[in-house]
Amino acid sequence: MVEASSQQIVPVVLCGGTGSRLWPLSREGYPKQFWPLVSGHTMLQDTVARATGSGFAAPIIVCNQAHRFMVAEQLQSAEIVNPTIVLEPVARNSAPAIAAAALLAHEQDPSAVLWLMAADAAIADDAALSAALARATAAARAGRIAAFGMQPTAPETGYGYIETGAPLDGLEGVSAIARFVEKPDAATAEGFLAGGRHLWNSGMFVATAATLVAELERLAPELLVAVRAAVANSTRDLDFVRLDVAAFSSAPDISIDYAVMEKTDRAAVVPASIGWSDVGSWSALWEIAPHDAAGNATYGPVELLDSKNSYVRSEGILTAVVGLEDVVVVVTDDAVLAMHRDRAQDVKTLLSQLKKAKYKEATEHRRNYRPWGHYEGLIQGDRFQVKKIQVKPGQKLSLQKHFHRAEHWVVVNGTAIVERDAERILLRENESVYLPLGCVHRMENPGMIPLTLIEVQSGSYLGEDDIVRFEDTYGRT
Questions:
Q1: What angle do CA 51, 56, 59 make, to 5 degrees?
Q2: pLDDT tens digits, one per residue of 336-368
């Protein structure tokens, strides 16, 4: 947690990324911001924790609507009170997401200072961050949009850069921005590092709601019209603000850098050295992870022999590496990635290849998260599959039926109430129920501990889309 000024700052956390370069751990269904990559907490939880306590208002989180329950659950687990969770019906890059947050904050207080940040960056030095935030806040109150520029420590080609201009009068430690620079090649990055005038573009910004709305109206009017309509026609659902689908979908797909920062005359930069990383690749994660005497970073059940400067991670399967240097090995329950660390940026290209080949592992984990809990596939064969299902205390599945499959549920831990057509059946450990094809059914966990059961499906078609919902606690169709 960092210190803020006396007037409360509104944290705005953008939580819509997919983290494609961290496949096979990060996937569209469960991207990197929901994983504990650099601490015992998830990236989202670490991010929000930096902006809690005295001096900070409740956060605004902008996320993909498919991730809404994961966001809500992780915030609740981190004891974050009264967050506003804004749901993007479609992905439209950072500018529309920021516009939605700015408009919502503007409704409450146009002078509110917003701290805009991604949910998936790592920061090691909270004291330095606090000092940088104070400088950025002063610039924001002077009408600027202040970017955090990270002091480069290497000729990084995976980041965009900010070229600093002259210091700004009356704003200590704040400079004008001469220009934004796209991700450079290696030679250009070496020159930037040697020259001392270029900073990594962290994607963090501080500005008032009034300044952001005014600059969006001046520089990206079409975008602001679309997002303003999406906010005006939004609906409240549980803890969520659902942006209007049609209006938000009409907004241009554009980043805040292109829409505003590269055009505005209010841009400023706060140089900072805060131990920042966007954790955008496995090599970046290796750089910030603790190393052993041979330069290796490991996670999970891993054993190394005569290996150096490598990152090896296992999510459960014993993984042994012998005689390798400068490699990345990542093992999940359904995929393995092995590569040289220098090729870390190529994972995104590999992922495109996997998607083209229609591997479901490209986008989905074996464990699939739902608002009531999760399920994971164990065995699949001709006309049958077996799943493990876990239902959180007090939660229940939708009232549903299937056209192509029957199911058999066996409780292995906890207690279940099962609706089967007109029946209500109480099941305890080692008890089971058969659900014939076409029956209307539902399962509920009435207990205080998670309910775990094994589901055996049999039928001519076993896809997840063979489901008709009649009633759902979570507003799904």
A1: 65
A2: 999 999 999 999 999 999 999 999 999 999 888
Among 356, 383, 411, the domain-final residue is 356
In a shared domain, residues 332 and 417: no
**Cα(104)–Cα(101) distance, integer angstroms:** 5
377 and 350 within one domain: no
pTM of the model: 0.88
The answer to whether residue 136 sits within a structural domain is yes
- Round to whole Å and give the CA distance between 434 and 440: 12
Closest CA to 53 of 11, 17, 19, 24: 11
Q: Output the 3-class SS for the chain.
A: CCCCCCCCEEEEEEECCCCHHHCCCCECCECHHHCCCCCCCCHHHHHHHCCCCCCECCCEEEEEHHHHHHHHHHHHHCCCCCCEEEEECCCCCHHHHHHHHHHHHHHHCCCCEEEEEECCCEECCHHHHHHHHHHHHHHHHCCCEEEEEECCCCCCCCCCEEEEEEECCCCCCCEEEEEEECCCCHHHHHHHHHHCCEEEEEEEEEEEHHHHHHHHHHHCHHHHHHHHHHHHCCEEECCEEECCHHHHHCCCCCCHHHHHHCCCCCEEEEEECCCEECCCCHHHHHHHCCCCCCCCEEECCEEEECCECCEEEECCCCEEEECCECEEEEECCCCEEEEEHHHHHHHHHHHHHHHHCCCHHHCCCCEEEECCEEEEEEEEECCEEEEEEEECCCCECCEEECCCEEEEEEEEECCEEEEECCEEEEECCCCEEEECCCCCEEEECCCCCCEEEEEEEEECCCCCCCCEEEECCCCCC
For residue 466, tell me if it sits in a domain: yes
pLDDT band with cut points at 50, 70 and 90 for residue 1:
low
143 and 246 fall within a common domain: yes
Q: Compute the Cα dihedral for 246, 247, 252, 258 and give only its sign.
A: negative
Give every CB contact of residue 103 below 8 A, 6+ residues apart in sequence: 209, 213, 227, 228, 231
> How many CB atoms are closer than 10 A to CB 448?
9
CA 148, CA 410: separation in Å to the nearest integer?
54
CA angle 214, 220, 226 (to 5 degrees): 95
Question: pLDDT tens-digit profile of 91-120?
Answer: 999 999 999 999 999 999 999 999 999 999
